Amino acid sequence: MESEKKGIFMMKQELTKILCEKSFKFSEEPVFKLVSGEMSRFYINCKPTVLSPRGMYLAGHLMFDKIGDLAADAVGGLTFGADPIAVATAFVSELKGKPFKAFSIRKEQKSHGIIKWVEGDLSKNDRVVILEDVVTTGGSTIKAIERARSENLNVIKVITLVDRQEGGVENIKKHVPDVSSIVTRDNLMDMINKEH
Questions:
Q1: Are strands 127-135 and 42-44 parallel, antiparallel or unpaired?
Q2: Tell me: the pLDDT tens digits for 53-107?
């Protein structure tokens, strides 16, 4: 158990380092424009990290560690940010002998075929965990929760890879009480300060 905890800690440290190298930028002045239109001192784009082989491996294992004890049927979130993380997590769940499926929530409903928000091999009332790459205000995560519920899925937990610590997690908790994050903005800043 102790060695497992140490392994998870080492993985988190390594993922934080990769995020700092590939995904995180900061400035003394607010020069980065966010989806909300607000300007920020921090820029986080997880895609270069989670689409790299090592980043995908680490994200999948760290997400599984947060979900492994839950009676979950599937993991997923809003496309495209959550997709590689959900796939990596589902892949790890099979390796660990506790398989759960991946799913993707559309940004726009398709206008042909079966019209639905959620893509994946899911059944009504499946217990699902919503994954997110980065949480700022929580708006897109809340949209994902609402769309999953509209497809009769039971959302039991939310996990974000990076919490920007700007109130988003608190907003999400109003919709799903069980919310956690793998890495925080403080973790990223600590890593950068340690490196310099």
A1: unpaired
A2: 999 999 999 999 999 899 999 999 999 999 999 999 999 999 999 999 999 999 8
- CA separation, residue 170 to residues 5, 85, 139, 179 (Å): 27, 22, 11, 9
Say if CB 171 and CB 142 are below 8 A apart. yes
In the chain, where are the structural domains located? Answer: 2-195
Handedness of CA 127, 132, 137, 143 (dihedral sign): negative
Other Cβ atoms less than 10 A from the Cβ of 53: the count is 7
Model pTM?
Answer: 0.94
The domain 2-195 having CATH identifier 3.50.50.60: the answer here is no
∠170-174-177 over CA atoms, to 5°? Answer: 85
Q: Is the backbone peptide bond immediately before 26 cis, with ω within 30 degrees of 0? A: no
Nearest to 76 by CA among 143, 132, 146, 116: 132
